[in-house]
Structures are given as structure tokens and as C-alpha cells.
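Possible regression after last week's pipeline update?

I re-ran a chain I had predicted before the update to compare outputs. Posting the input and the new output here so someone can diff against the archived version. Not blocking, just want to make sure nothing changed silently.
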Amino acid sequence: MQNGRVASANDMPGFTTDRAAAAQSLRLPMGLAGASASPYFCLSDFVKNWPSNAENQSGASSQQPTHKARIVLMITNGVDPYNGSTSILNQDSPYVASAITDAQRAGVPVYSIYYGDTGFRRGRGSFSGQSYLLQVAQGTGGTTYYQGTGNPVSLIPFLKQFQNALAETYVATFPVDANKKLVSLKLSTTLPRTKVNAPQQVRPGTIVLSQR
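New output (post-update):
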């Protein structure tokens, strides 16, 4: 995440299924003041420019369409520096709300791992960042992972939880009037000891993922 957008390391074009190439492209962030902008600017830009396969499947009548999941995992402190104070009384950011709406329209659940930096690692900054990440997760059907207000010693436990969440993700379909407006969605289950995460709003025609 850089300058309000998602930049590919080493100018790697688009996505890749080559795990070795993806691992080699990982780099530490530049650490320049202002270059990180807002993680929610980056999220909005990313989901808006992520090619969708939902529209391409609408004409497939003879075959069952193949739904390819599109899921985001962000590692960030979650702080929105453009929303002013990180006070507990100032936790309604229009930029966070816009990012949630953009992800809902694209049908992309957003997961996150909280990882603080030197500027906002403790106190109100930690609270504010985790609060925003929770809002994004609840709004899009994802989950946010954090360990108190400090940084985890290792990301491996969180990555395993994320992997398990993906393994328990399903496509949900339901009838609704055809339009491009967002509609509210509430899922429940009668299975014992089972919790379902799903986006709070969806756009008809968009692939919807739910996590058990």
C-alpha cells in the first residue's frame, strides 16, 4: 500500500499464481512520512480496479458458473490519518465507510492483521486502528486479527486462522430484485455452535461469500 494505491513490487504486473515469484517480490515498506496515505484509500482503489468475473458469468446458462473467490488480507495499523484525531469520540471516518461500500459492491470480504508502527503503536492510535479494521471486517464479511495493543511476535498463528477461514468459506445465492443498488443482508444458521460471517450489504449480481 503506497500513495493511496496498491503498488506491485518490482513492477510485477497484476496477480500471479507463482508463489515463489510472489515471495521474491515482497519488500519492506519505504517508511516515508505520507507515502502510506490511508489504508482505506488503498483498499478502495484496489477493489475498484480488481477485474470482476461476476458479469462474465451472467450469460452462462448451460453450465454451472465457476465462482472464483476474491478476498483481501491487509496487514496494517488500520489508522486513518485523514480523519483527524484518533480520539475514541472520533471513530466515524467517511473514508473507512467508503472503503466498506466499495468492497461490498465488489463482493470482496476484507480480512486484516493489526500491526502497529512507531507512530501509532500504542494508546488511542491502537484503539482507533483496530476499531476501523473491525468495522471493515464486519461490513464485508471478513475477520480482523489482533493481539491486544501490541504487535504479535509471529504472524503465523493469524495466517493459520486466515487459512482455516478460507477453507470454511462458501458461496451464498438468494433471489433479489435486479438492480445495482446495495441491499441489506443478514444470514443465520440453525446449526449448533456455528457462527456465520457475511457482508452487511451486497449488490445484486455480485458473488457473495459467507464464512462458517
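Follow-up from reviewer: compared with the archived run. Residues 124-140 form the longest helix (17 residues). Marking as no regression found.
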